[in-house]
Design a protein that fits this description.
Helix 1 packs parallel to helix 2 (29-38). The protein has a 3-stranded parallel beta sheet, sandwiched between helices. The chain has helices at 3-13, 29-38, 56-64, 77-88, and strands spanning 18-20, 47-51, 69-72. It has one domain (3-88): Rossmann fold. The chain has 92 residues and is of the alpha/beta class.
């Protein structure tokens, strides 16, 4: 529901991949990513943004934060699946 919940779940679950929106209440996706990067147990987990925000500033911030991918929601599920497969080293 929000970046803080995502962070707490990631800490307790240690997923293979994190997919997050940018626009969330409480803690934004960008701040969530910053929190993940500061936590040694989470910092190496690949991180993908799935979002409606696709402006140059948003893409630049994602790049600065070292995300593995930035998928715009209008691109559809196939693009997301392809990006996930690529990040995890799986075949499409």
């Amino acid at each position: 529901m929000n970046g803080q919940e995502g962070y707490d779940l990631a800490l307790s679950w240690l997923p293979d991949l994190i997919i997050s929106d940018v626009m969330m209440p409480v803690v934004s996706g960008f701040e969530f990513r910053r929190m993940v990067l500061k936590e040694p147990s989470l910092s190496s987990i690949p991180f993908i943004f799935l979002t409606a925000k696709s402006g140059d500033d948003d893409l630049a911030t994602g790049k600065e934060l070292g995300v593995a991918g930035f998928v715009v929601k209008t691109e559809g599920p196939r693009v997301l699946v392809s990006k996930v497969n690529s990040v995890l080293g799986l075949k499409d």
